[in-house]
């Protein structure tokens, strides 16, 4: 059993941003349809609320759930405010076009940065800021 856990953890991301949404199902739709994430897991609680969801993109993942569940994490997140998440993509312009097609609010169009990266910035339905670009954090210069 320990061996299968080690293999499983080697394939999963080490860091997963976690967000809460008043309408987590709408957030999942926007993130999958507008940003191209893939739904990996979805656990629903009472009344169909999202207790926990995992959405994958490349070798990364975000976790999310519905606000107001009363869990300890939910209580801590009440005053946390919006979050910013950076996602590396290969083709910024194609990714941006997809987001625009799905009505995502774009706050900065694709822009070439001094660092050599090309990025754009969007805001999701509940104010979280999503940056998409070619910069590869941790890569050797």
Structural write-up:
The protein has 141 residues and is of the alpha/beta class. The chain has one domain: 2,3-Dihydroxybiphenyl 1,2-Dioxygenase, domain 1. The protein has four helices and eight strands. The strands form two sheets. It has a four-stranded mixed sheet with strand order 1-4-3-2, covered by helices on one side. A four-stranded mixed sheet has the order 5-8-7-6, covered by helices on one side. The model is unreliable at 1-8 (pLDDT under 50).
Describe the protein's topology.
Elements: H1 2-11, E1 18-21, H2 24-34, E2 38-44, E3 50-57, E4 60-66, H3 72-77, E5 84-88, H4 92-101, E6 105-112, E7 118-123, E8 129-133
Parallel strand pairs: 1-4, 5-8
Antiparallel strand pairs: 2-3, 3-4, 6-7, 7-8
């Amino acid at each position: 059993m320990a061996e299968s856990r080690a293999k499983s953890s080697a394939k999963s991301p080490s860091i997963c941003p976690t967000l809460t949404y008043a309408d987590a199902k709408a957030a999942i739709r926007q993130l999958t349809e507008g940003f191209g994430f893939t739904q990996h897991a979805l656990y629903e609680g009472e009344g169909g609320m999202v207790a926990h969801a995992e959405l994958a993109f490349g070798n990364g993942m975000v976790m999310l759930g519905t606000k107001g569940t009363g869990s300890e994490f939910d209580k801590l997140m009440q005053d946390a405010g919006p979050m910013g998440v950076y996602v590396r993509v290969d083709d910024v312009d194609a990714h941006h076009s997809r987001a625009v097609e799905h009505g995502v609010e774009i706050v900065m169009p694709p822009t070439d940065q001094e660092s050599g990266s090309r990025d754009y910035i969007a805001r999701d339905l509940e104010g979280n800021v999503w940056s998409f670009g070619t910069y590869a954090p941790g890569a050797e210069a």
